[in-house]
From TrEMBL:
InterPro entries: DnaB/C_C (IPR006343), DnaD (IPR053162), DnaD-like_sf (IPR034829), DnaD_N (IPR053843), WH-like_DNA-bd_sf (IPR036388). Residues 199-231 are annotated as: Disordered. Transmembrane segments: none annotated. This is DNA replication protein dnaD. Residues 131-202 form the DnaB/C C-terminal domain. SUPFAM superfamilies: DnaD domain-like. It comes from the Bacteria. Residues 17-115 form the DnaD N-terminal domain. Belongs to the DnaB/DnaD family. It comes from Ligilactobacillus araffinosus DSM 20653.
């Protein structure tokens, strides 16, 4: 075989499979043999072709047709591929195979993985908030303290960022307890303060107001005329 013929064979087409499926086929319920069969099935069904030649697939995989049928039905039972019977315009029945169940399972796996990461990140953030408060207060948190902080994060939906900022405000004021932090958070909530940027804007506004009041207080009092109004 010369290079020209070999190149033509290599250019006969490709069977594409998402990397997410490639890396997670075991989690999707397939073993290596079933996955190879799935690839052959996908190649056979390419371009909407439904004329499935299981005998050819059996030859490629070096198996008999009974084993190939077993693999096929196994994937159907696992909900990885679907088989439906359709009737054409001439009343003839035919089988149609679809990989849509596989794609749906893959999307569910992706969502579950993302949700697990979010839960893990939330738990880590929660632990970080606990550790920061314990560090600033100088003592371990009680179960009541933890419940209060959890209520801030999960019920009141205060962000970890805003809780830490309230902690800083309490420390700067020399008050080391959660009740004072709770008052700060409630006051900020009433003013619509939800982020570090909001806190900074409020501080800037407060500082400008203080400067303005001091300027007004330092203004010279109006001079009293020396005229003798009695004259």
């Amino acid at each position: 075989m010369d290079d020209t013929v070999a190149l033509k064979l290599l250019q006969t087409g490709n069977t594409m499979i998402p990397n997410l499926i490639l890396k997670n086929y075991v989690k999707l319920g397939m073993n290596a043999e079933e996955f190879v069969f799935l690839l052959e099935l996908k190649a056979a069904l390419k371009d909407g072709n439904q004329a499935l030649d299981l005998q050819t697939i059996a030859q490629i995989m070096n198996k008999d047709e009974a084993q190939i049928y077993q693999l096929l039905h196994g994937l159907i039972e696992k909900g990885i591929i679907s088989l439906t019977s359709v009737v054409d315009d001439q009343g003839r029945n035919s089988d149609q195979y679809s990989l849509e169940p596989l794609y749906k399972k893959t999307l569910k796996l992706l969502r579950d993985q993302m949700q697990a990461k979010q839960i893990q990140a939330h738990q880590q953030t929660r632990n970080d908030v606990f550790a920061r408060i314990e560090q600033e207060f100088g003592h371990p948190l009680s179960s009541f303290d933890m419940e209060m902080i959890d209520s801030w994060l999960n019920e009141d939906h205060y962000s970890p960022e805003i809780v830490i900022l309230a902690l800083k405000e309490a420390v700067l004021s020399g008050v080391y307890n959660l009740k004072y932090m709770d008052k700060i958070l409630l006051a900020w909530e009433k003013k619509g303060i939800k982020t570090a940027a909001d806190v900074q804007r409020q501080r800037t506004k407060f500082r400008h107001q203080g400067q303005s009041q001091r300027k007004q207080g330092n203004r010279a009092k109006p001079k009293i005329p020396l005229n003798k109004w009695s004259e």
